[in-house]
Amino acid sequence: MDETTAPPPIVVELAATCGTDALAYTRGGCALPADAGTAWRHGLRLGLHCSYCCGGLTAILLVLGVMDLRAMAFVTAAITIERLAPAGEHIARAIGLIVIGTGLFLITRATLS
Which of 7, 15, 79, 97 is the most buried (most CB within 10 A)? Predict the structure, then answer.
């Protein structure tokens, strides 16, 4: 990646702070809604929460380039591992730390050049 296509490091840092431990909400067991209105509201709430959880990684994907296969593979793997791993909360935090470290590296590299 050359200097003209490098992602803005601040986007990577902001994305890392968004939704790294919010996965616990969707992992909790809950009863199924009783009527259609309640089911609609519950589904809408879960959809918004899922969008919030994946928003940071999606922002990184948009900044790195949606058509970059490496970025797509990283984001897909990160979201899949967070959702399917038995300790998804710990995985989400580890991914957040990796993204924060990458952002700090990009900031340092941008200030030194």
Answer: 15
**Residue 29 in domain:** yes
What sections of the chain are H helices per DSSP? 9-16, 24-27, 36-64, 69-84, 88-112
In the predicted structure, residue 6 carries a pLDDT above the cut 60? no
Tell me how far the alpha carbon of residue 111 is from its chain's centroid: 26
Rounded Cα gap, residues 64 and 85, in angstroms: 26
- Asked whether residue 1 is domain-assigned, the answer is no
Span 82-94, pLDDT tens digits: 888 888 888 888 9
> Do residues 23 and 53 touch, judged by C-beta distance below 8 A?
yes
pTM of the model: 0.57
Structural contact between residues 45 and 111, judged by C-beta atoms closer than 8 angstroms = no
Q: Identify which of 4, 11, 1, 5 has the alpha carbon closest to the alpha carbon of residue 107.
A: 11
